Amino acid sequence: MKKYLIIALSIFLLIGCRNPSESAPVSPANMSHALSLVDSLSIDDQIIYFIHIYADAPDYQPVEAEGEGVSCVDDVGRFMEVLEKEILEYKRTDLLPIARGMTRFLLYMCRDDGLWYNFIDANGKINRDYRTSKADFEWWAARGIRGLVAAHNIFYESKNDWGLLDRIKGKIETTVPLLEEALESYPQTRDTEFGERPAWLIRHAPDMNSEFLLALTKLHAVGGFDYRDAIEKLAEGLMDYQFQQEGHILDGMYFCWQNIWHNWGNNQAYALLETYRIKGDQKILESVQRWADDFVPFLIKHNLPRRIEMNTDGTYKMSTCPQIAYGINSLYRGMKTLAEISGKPEYEACAEQIFAWFQGENIAGAVMYDAETGRVYDGINDGPMVNFNSGAESTIEGLLAIQKRGKYNDIGTEK
């Protein structure tokens, strides 16, 4: 991969020489490590930016993902949301070139028919063959849409970026109808071991559909886009996958896939609450409160397990590891948002217990975010043993959690 000296110098300046306006609040997130993973290449006479997938200890230099590539829509789309917060709330205008370049990356990875590829290799060639990179409308499509909506918000008022904004809008208008087509089976249901379930969710996967719901609620809130019908159908589908049995220890749990709950991408509560902000439907709030009152305390009591597999007789099997920032942030943002909406201190306290995983309150007793470098470690494995690598996903999810909280430590100077 050809390195561009001007890009390397730019990133150095971004890390060390930013000059935010005096009136702008200071971000609690240390962007240094994330920016060290940012790179660029030239495709069709355009410079695109991306973020490397892996960075291994102890030197934390980028490592190519064998069989996949150097970067993916999954990571770039989510990192755009980090950039959105830094640019719009913390006035990090020095990050605008990276946001533009990553927007070009997302536009490059979305086909004209609205399907998305995921991975690129070091030469900018799209990986069209790997199972999670074939042109499709799955997880990476949802992350791509989220990234494009973040780009829309960043460049909405920039006269110099109207051309880019038009491309963003065009790609969104090409992509989102595929989701609406997938929902045409509403209100059909299907038989499962746990009773009748919605048949209109993509791949019958509530976890993946929570990502799409996050994308649509974010898009709808922008204004100028009206996806209320799709939002309502997705929200109904997620609520219909909630396990409800008074007195059962797992009451309130949202199934993620078939008979399984897992905390990787368990964004149902967060997505439903973003829907509640739009609709104000009390049924949505009651569903999430049941999750928060009954199921989340179970998770906290059992040290935030990785996975729960439920049997039809109500028994279950639980796995503790691996634990990763992606899973913790999914839980945290749901509970934190509920605390914001309800104003109830007990939900805020519960959110703090989840966030404390980053601060060392976990089964390994290890601080998972290094405030000095901005690294978020890749997880906790059986043992327990900390995986001290620090790739894009863990770093991005950790930064999103810190941005959501508005601080990392309760005292002292934030990085």
Describe the structure.
The chain has 415 residues and is of the alpha+beta class. The protein has a domain at 1-175. It is 47% helix and 12% strand. It contains 13 helices and 15 strands. The chain has helices spanning 5-16, 32-36, 73-88, 96-109, 139-155, 162-182, 206-222, 228-239, 268-279, 282-301, 325-342, 345-359, 392-405, and strands spanning 38-43, 46-51, 54-56, 61-63, 71-72, 119-120, 189-192, 195-198, 260-262, 307-310, 316-319, 369-370, 375-376, 379-381, 385-387. Strands 9-10-11 form a three-stranded antiparallel β-sheet, with no helix packed on it. A hairpin with a 3-residue loop joins strand 14 and strand 15. The two termini are 32 Å apart. The model is unreliable at 2-21 and 411-415 (pLDDT under 50).
